[in-house]
Amino acid sequence: MDTFSVADTGDDDRRRPLAAPSGSAFATLSVGKEGAVLFVDIAAPPMNLLGPELVRDLVRLIAQAEADNDVKVLVFRSTDPDYFISHVDVTKIKEYREEAAKLTGEASIGLLFRYLSASRLVTISQIEGRVRAAGSEFVLACDMRFAARESAIFAQPEPAFGAVPGAGGIQHLARLMGRGRALEVMLSAQDYDAELAERYGWINRAMPAKALGEFVRSLAHRIAKFPAGSLAAVKDRVNAIALAPVDDFRRDSDLFGESSRSPEGQSRFQAAFRRGFQTRDAEMDLAGLLGDLGDP
Amino acid sequence: MDTFSVADTGDDDRRRPLAAPSGSAFATLSVGKEGAVLFVDIAAPPMNLLGPELVRDLVRLIAQAEADNDVKVLVFRSTDPDYFISHVDVTKIKEYREEAAKLTGEASIGLLFRYLSASRLVTISQIEGRVRAAGSEFVLACDMRFAARESAIFAQPEPAFGAVPGAGGIQHLARLMGRGRALEVMLSAQDYDAELAERYGWINRAMPAKALGEFVRSLAHRIAKFPAGSLAAVKDRVNAIALAPVDDFRRDSDLFGESSRSPEGQSRFQAAFRRGFQTRDAEMDLAGLLGDLGDP
Amino acid sequence: MDTFSVADTGDDDRRRPLAAPSGSAFATLSVGKEGAVLFVDIAAPPMNLLGPELVRDLVRLIAQAEADNDVKVLVFRSTDPDYFISHVDVTKIKEYREEAAKLTGEASIGLLFRYLSASRLVTISQIEGRVRAAGSEFVLACDMRFAARESAIFAQPEPAFGAVPGAGGIQHLARLMGRGRALEVMLSAQDYDAELAERYGWINRAMPAKALGEFVRSLAHRIAKFPAGSLAAVKDRVNAIALAPVDDFRRDSDLFGESSRSPEGQSRFQAAFRRGFQTRDAEMDLAGLLGDLGDP
After folding, report:
1. Phi, psi (degrees; rounded to nearest 5) at B123
2. C227 and B159 in contact by Cβ < 8 A?
3. Fewer CB within 10 Å, N side or C side of chain C?
């Protein structure tokens, strides 16, 4: 057993522990390697908040996987059936931003996510449970997104808090679903199920949960058979068209920082906390909670 | 009772007449206010043609709503079950363009519609009946579009008249549905029902007529609860990506003017008038009328 | 009978042979003219490979049709129920590129296809059977694409060979279906049926094979009734938004050349030939063949 904790990724006999260049295991990720594919299970109880620990682990994982030429494809999953990544821990914005800076030199998870999009690594999100705000922005940064029809829930609800999506959500959603649907999704701060997310282009496809795992595993292994150079070249050419410039990610990141620190933003976050924000139970229906925020 | 005529917008007790800064009621709009939401019913018999009167009223409505910080969301509806906005009155192009110039300084409804898209106001179209040509372009200028599955009909048929869409249709459709579908829609001059319009991305969603009104009302009030600053900031950032530059709207507007005044354009319009163009009955099947235009 | 061979295009009595300006019939195309519509049937047995002969014929067809002001619309079909255009003949890249240069001055089918997209001619693909790689890129270059639900199959599988799509596939797919789906389609090198191709925006619409022919014929004749000037003007304005610049097509074309000539590309093509690549039977399941390429 090496420095990675190895998830149960099935009985494929090609599975082996990943040789990690640095010293310690991940606190919030469980990683299994099958050939050129890494299966990365997010496990940050109680609700997979994106805080300093998870960002630190993602930074290390990405750096290690990029340095390992045996790795071509990363599959992200969650060990929590209700939460894939809930959203950032808004009490630790400064701290998680500093962790992101260790890879990119800039204190912004938007730029960290864009770094992943621009990487030679092919990334696939296998989504069960909730992805809201930065959770949505993480899966949007992946190259492909497949979601369980029964359980996946999507939201980009920052405007309900007086803030703007700061980690690429605006950039990706406007390009994937067009002006009208992107505005609806963000201005409404509503929850969207997998079927509607597919119709809107938020994800590649929705499918039954029982078929999802095998579909993604098979796709990942198929891609991993193809030459690394052509995978990277196609990513580069597609990114030149469809991945927003760094400056636009930086601007959104700055706007999120400013709007979340504003008096109105702070007041909204406090009202949300009083209603159970950042607790597992209350966020099962975050859309409902947000609809009540302005009420006395 | 003040200067706005108040539509029956349900029994919500927050509903009250809008305090209008200027002097007279609208000739072609009926406006009701519920909290921060204005419900604007288009009523320009016999078929909701976009002529000088309706443009004048839209200009005044937009100016008044923008000046009233209590107003966040505008919902556009029609009192005519068969026509939302049929298209411009082609006998009064100069006149309605001059009305548009009173808001934007330029004699173009394309630039008026773009002004609305760029406004801080959040706009939603609740579409029952026909939206063709400038009618389609008006709903495309709104931030969101929801349509009744049974009755909504969409067309961008200018090429059948030897003209090009001049009020933003090219700009929006090419971005929302991609090159192939945008070309099909415009070059065919066909009618599209709400279900196909949804699949093509022309609208956000089609839904049963009996569910549409309550869905839109609920969405409008939800958005109106969120801070105005974040709504405007998200619109700005999305518009920077997905709303075409002013110059492109201006160029299309000029092309429409030139093509509609050309001998071929004039001849086509005259042939259409001989077949009932700009009459309520004949335009129930405008697509059929246009298909016969070239015949002897 | 003139220099065009005339396909059986139904019993429309407006059908007549096309007056061809140059001397010889086509070797791989069968062309019928009905009014302002040319029906072009691709017939290059055994599997409609895009080699020097088919490129030469397409070049001549396009040049002749553009020179004939009576022609407004081109409909492309296949006489082979299993293959529309399979892909390029990879043993004759230099030769077919030289044929393309006769129209555009540049040895690239990507630039030939872009020339067709930018032409005043309105082009419609009626797809039955397989369109893979350059076959997909040809139909993407057309203005509209309609496909038979039962038989049409789509793939953009160049990365499986260590190559990148070189004739516009990257440019069109990234814009039509967005970053996530475009990456999935190309990196997976999978086959996609017409229904999924429609959901992803690869084609305008999938429909039953028995309805397809009449739908396309009717659409083509409808468009052909409208003034040529407005058809061309709308194409120009849409292309200004949604057709990638020449430089991007040129860059992809160069990358395909380089990657297909590389040692890894050559080794992959040879492995594919050993498994039946470029034979009619083996390519019925090309996706399966490609998935096995890396195996010993």
Report:
1. -120, 135
2. yes
3. C
> Could you read off the pLDDT of A189-215 as tens digits, one per residue?
999 999 999 999 999 999 999 999 999
* Closest residue of chain C to B178, computed from CA coordinates: C176
Question: How distant is the Cα of B212 from the closest Cα of chain C, in angstroms?
Answer: 24
For residue C79, how many other CB atoms are within 10 A of its CB? 18
Q: C19 falls in which pLDDT band (50, 70, 90)?
A: very low
Beta carbons of C222 and B188 less than 8 Å apart: yes
- Would you tell me the crossing angle of helices B169-188 and C228-242 to the nearest 10 degrees? 140
Provide the chain A residues 173-192 that lie in CB contact (below 8 A) with chain C.
Answer: 175-176
The CA distances from residue C180 to A77, C188, C244, in Å, are 17, 12, 19
Q: What is the DSSP letter of C88?
A: B
A17 touching chain B per CB within 8 A:
no
Tens digit of pLDDT for each residue in C218-259?
999 999 999 999 999 999 999 999 999 999 999 999 999 999
3-state secondary structure of A192: strand
**Which of A8-12, A271-275, C162-166 is predicted with the least confidence, judged by mean pLDDT?**
A8-12
pTM assigned to the model = 0.93
For residue B216, give how far its alpha carbon lies from the nearest alpha carbon of chain A (Å): 11
| Residue A94 burial class via C-beta count within 10 angstroms: exposed 0-12, middle 13-18, buried 19 and up | exposed
- pLDDT for the residue B24: 54
Q: Nearest chain B Cα to C229, which residue? A: B162
* pLDDT (tens digit per residue) in B36-69: 999 999 999 999 999 999 999 999 999 999 999 9
Gap from B144 CA to chain C (nearest CA, Å): 20
Q: Determine if the peptide bond prior to A21 is cis (ω within 30°).
A: no
Give the number of other CB atoms < 10 A from CB of residue B247. Answer: 8
The shortest C-alpha distance from C169 to chain A (Å) reads 10
- The verdict on A165 touching B (C-beta cutoff 8 Å) is yes
Q: Is the ipTM of this complex over 0.95?
A: no
Alpha-carbon Rg for chain A in angstroms = 18
